[in-house]
Amino acid sequence: HRGVRLWFPTLLHRGGPGKRPRPRLTALPRLIRSEIPAFAGMTEVRRGYNGGVTLPRLLDRMDDAVRLLSARPAALFLDIDGTLADIAPRPGDAAVPPAVSAGLAALAERLTVAVLTGRSVADARRMVGVEAAVYAGNHGAEWWEAGRAAAAPEVAPYLPALRALAEEAARRFPEGGGFIVEDKGASLSLHFRLAADPERARAEALAFARDAGASSGLRAFEGKMVVEVRAPVEVSKGTALARVAAERGIKAAAALGDDTTDIAMFAALRGLREQGALEGFAAAVLGEHTPPALLEAADYVLDGPAEARRFIRWVAEG
Question: What is the three-class DSSP state of 264?
C-alpha cells in the first residue's frame, strides 16, 4: 500500500503571524500514536476534508517561539486548568507542579507572565505561586491589584446577586449528588464531572443557571464539564489580554489555553496582531473535550498540559 489516510473533523485555520491561510499539519492524536506502533514516531498528520486545514505542533517550532519571546517587551498569557495543571475531578485537587512555578518565576524576571483564569485570583495566586505575575481571575472580572483581589468596576454591582445565587445553588445541589458548587465571588461554577449521568447533570445545571440568574440578568456559560454564571458585562480573557498588552506596551506575546473561554484570549491576540500592534501566536492545549472553535482560533497545538509545561521550561531555559 502507498499509505494510510486518516480523516478527522474539518477545522479551518487563518494562518500564523503575518501569514496567509494555508494548509497545515497538526499533532497526531495521542490515541493513534499510543495504539498504532507504526505511527509512534510521528508528530504531525493532515486532517479534515474539502480543503480543511489544521495546526502545527508548537514544540516543533520552538526556535521561532523562543526568538519571539526574547523580544522586548514580551508577554506570556496562560490559563491554569487544562494548561498549566492537569484537569482534576475536583477543582481543589488540581495543582501546578513546583518546577513549572519556578520556570514562570524565572520568566517573570524578563517578560510579563499573565495568568488569565476562570478561578478566583486568590486561588490562582495560591496555585501558580509567582509573586511577580499578573493575575486576572473569573475570566477577567477580577484582578489582583495593590496586594488584594478587586472586582472589575462594571462587575461590582452584580456581586450581591452572585452571592445569593451561590447560596441557592448550594441548597439545590448538595454534596454527594455529583455536583460541586464553587463560589468564586465574581462568578459561580457548577461542576458536574463527578455526576453518574453527565448529560442529565449538564441539563440540570444549565436550567438552574438560566432560570435562577434571569431575574438579576446574570448569564450562563459552558466549559469543560462545568456551567458558569457571570455578570452580564463585556469582560473576558480577551479584554484582560488587551488591558495587559496596552498597559505594559507589549510587542510580542504568546497565549496558551484549552477551553471555550480561552477563545476570547486567542481572538484578542489575533486582533492586536492584525492591527500591527504586536507579533505573537496562540497555542491550543489539547485535552479530552477540546472545543473545535478553540482550534480554529489557534496557530499551534500542544498535546496536553505536559507539553505546555515542557514549552514553558524550554522558553525559561532559552
Answer: helix
| 229 membership: H or E segment, kind and range | strand 226-230
Q: Which three cell numbers stand for residue 151?
A: 472586582
Express each pLDDT in 77-103 by its tens digit.
999 999 999 998 888 899 999 999 999
User: Using H for helix, E for strand and C for coil, what is the string for 94-163?
Assistant: CCCCHHHHHHHHHHCCCCEEEEECCCCHHHHHHHHCCCCCEEEEHHHCEEEECCEEEECCCCHHHHHHHH
Taking a C-beta distance cutoff of 8 angstroms, is the pair 261, 221 a contact?
yes
Catalytic residues: 79
User: Helix/strand/coil (H, E, C) string of 68-97?
Assistant: HHCCCCEEEEECCECCCECCCCCHHHCCCC
Alpha-carbon torsion (227, 233, 234, 240), positive or negative: negative
Phi, psi at 220, each rounded to 5°: -105, 140
Query: Which is it for the CA torsion 116, 122, 123, 128, positive or negative?
Result: positive
Q: First CA to last CA across the chain, in angstroms?
A: 43
Model confidence pLDDT, tens digit, residues 117-175: 999 999 999 999 999 999 999 999 999 977 888 899 999 999 999 999 999 999 999 87
Measured between alpha carbons, how far is residue 160 from residues 176, 184, 236 in Å? 27, 12, 20
- 220's enclosing H/E stretch is strand 219-223
Residues 6+ apart with CB under 8 A from 217: 158, 161, 232
- Strands 134-137 and 112-116 come out as parallel
